[in-house]
Amino acid sequence: MRLLLWLALAGAAVTFAGSAAIWFMDEERRIRRAFRHVMKVPADAVIVSVGRGRGAGFSFSRNLAAVAWESGAWCLVYRLEELVGVELIVDGDVRARVYRGETRRALEQTSGGVGQVSLRLIFDDARYPDFELELWGPGDATRRNAPSPVEAIQEGNRWVARAEAILRRAAPARAAAVRPAAPPRPEPAPVAAPGPAAAADDPPWDEDEPPAPRARATSRRAVREPETRDLFDDPDEAFS
């Protein structure tokens, strides 16, 4: 009984460990962890190409977009304003698309002979200008829990509509990044031509107001001397 109990416990532990490993190494979870590592925050929206190790994620709080290869083994990070457009490609034909500054081309047909459905993200980058996610391929017909071609087309169309909202959201960030123009430099005030030099004793009167009349100083000659009587006006009185 003791041996059987130990065997049961060991089997349960192995089963739990295997399930935890499968859950932890799930492709979508690995890509989400890679996005959280490179963008420093959890991604707000993620699309994964199941079975191909590719995915794209967006963080609206940090204004970032990231793409991953090989289940998140390596990633590239872009700013949202670097996203130029998104295309939904079905059998090599672009059925829906949206570009910055253009009206979205809506999806018109969801049926027909479908061999491949992919979503193409276009970035303003010289080295990696685009990133393609295969949403459905011929090998997915035998894969378990794989979506149908019509469901893959509808999922891609939803992401085209979401990309239109992302492009509108990223438009103010580009405008805010433009450095405002420097204000014009003030022109120097014109210098008046020098006029005649003013007298040193003249006060700085305002030219608009006439100066008050200045009191003239009384000279010593202008002082009136007291009247004196000339004693020699009458000669008789002078010799008296």
Walkthrough of the structure:
The protein has 240 residues and is an alpha+beta fold. The chain has helices at residues 2-24, 27-39, 149-177, 235-238; strands spanning 45-49, 54-59, 64-69, 74-79, 83-90, 93-99, 117-123, 130-136. The strands form two sheets. A four-stranded antiparallel sheet has the order 1-2-3-4, covered by helices on one side. The chain starts with a helix and ends with a helix.
Index terms:
22% strand; 240 residues; single chain; alpha+beta; 4 helices; flat; 4-stranded antiparallel beta sheet
Mean pLDDT: 78
The N- and C-terminal alpha carbons lie at a distance of 180 Å
Q: Catalogue the unreliable spans.
A: 173-178, 217-228
Give the C-alpha Rg: 48 Å
Going across the biggest sheet, name each strand in turn.
1-2-3-4
Helix amount: 25-40%
Structural class of the secondary elements?
alpha+beta
Main sheet summary: 4 strands, antiparallel
Proportion of residues in extended strands:
15-25%
Overall 3D shape: flat
